[in-house]
Design goal:
It is a single chain. The chain has 315 residues and is of the alpha/beta class. The protein has ten helices and twelve strands. Strands 3, 4, 5, 6, 7, 8, 9, 10, 11 and 12 form a ten-stranded mixed sheet that branches. The protein has a two-stranded antiparallel sheet with strand order 1-2. Helix 1 packs across helix 3 and helix 1 crosses helix 4. It is globular, with a radius of gyration of 23 Å.
Length: 315
């Protein structure tokens, strides 16, 4: 008789791979560290190989361990899809949903849409995880996230994409830096020598420059922000100017700062979208979630934040 690894053992293995630390992996699995360690040793004994090299400072997967954990992600993803088949036939959005949200969306959009989601689907247990676009898409591919709320353009691999609405870009600057500022700003009028942008890894940086038609612009490497809030504080300190999406302005990011915001002409905007793995049995549920988000945004009179022109799914 062949003894096969359990799903629990594979969950322990992938958690350790994600977190790189036994304590954090145990916390993520809601077990003690000794329980997780014992489960991994049982898995190694079952397979007859060492998957993880352990010492006090570093957790390192062996080459074979990397192959095994890659397969473990596939097995867990398929197991989740199997469970989703039955959930999809019952009441929609009534179970767990692990949603990734990028940092330039999460604090500005979620407070507006979560009450609507709770009202529409009170049985939904939403688990939120704030991640930058790259790691979020990787987690989606591994199966540790069910869907991701991000901004386009962004290549997220094998996903279905539901565009939700367009989010215009504004130039934010100190009133002392521009005498008699115009009602709007053309992309070619943006001074790249005083442009403050987010650090590498934030999709907003490249998106803002691309949609403004100025991909050649480069921020001062000595003045890069870790968040939109930090960028606004830097502008208030007269270190430069920055590009901010409208949803952050509507959330009050510059209120009380005395700063000025002007729309960038030429349709400069990003598209907020909901994405999930291609072929997911929960696709119909994710579309319902997207519809609630759009309705919540529309109900507030979103201004330049308008429904994406194409409401159809993109692959």
């Amino acid at each position: 008789m062949t003894f096969l690894p359990t799903l629990k053992q594979l969950q322990y293995l992938t958690a350790l791979h994600i977190h790189g630390h036994f304590g954090r992996a145990a916390d993520a699995c809601f077990v003690t560290q000794s329980t997780l360690s014992a489960g991994l040793r049982e898995l190694e004994n079952l397979l007859g190989v060492q998957l993880v090299e352990r010492n006090r400072r570093v957790v390192r997967f062996s080459p074979l361990g990397e192959q095994v954990v890659a397969k473990a992600y596939e097995v867990l993803r398929e197991a989740d899809a199997l469970a989703s088949l039955t959930r999809a036939t019952k009441e929609p959005l009534a179970g767990d949903l692990r949603l990734g949200v990028i940092p330039t969306i999460a604090p500005y959009l979620l407070p507006r849409v979560l009450p609507a989601v709770r009202a529409a689907y009170p049985e939904l247990k939403l688990y939120l995880r704030e991640e930058m676009s790259g790691p979020a898409c990787e987690a989606l591919a591994r199966g540790t996230l069910d869907a991701v709320l991000l901004a386009l353009p962004w290549a997220c691999g094998g996903v279905e994409t539901m565009p939700l609405f367009d989010d215009a870009f504004y130039l934010v600057f100190h009133p002392g830096d521009r005498i008699d500022p115009p009602p709007s700003v053309a992309p070619d009028a943006i001074d790249d020598t005083h442009l403050l942008l987010l650090e590498d890894g934030h999709c907003l940086k490249d998106q803002a420059l691309a949609v403004c038609g100025r991909p050649e612009l480069r921020a001062d490497p000595g003045h890069r922000g870790t968040s939109l809030v930090t960028l606004v504080q830097m502008v208030a300190g007269r270190l430069g100017q920055t590009l901010v999406p409208e949803m952050a302005l509507k959330a009050g990011i510059i209120e009380g700062s005395g700063l000025i915001a002007r729309p960038v002409t030429g349709g400069a905007s990003r598209t907020v979208a909901l994405v999930w793995r291609t072929g997911s049995p929960r696709a119909a549920e994710f579309k319902l979630l997207g519809d609630v988000i759009v309705s919540a945004v529309d109900s507030e009179g979103a201004g330049a934040m308008v429904r994406a022109k194409s409401g159809e799914l993109m692959r």
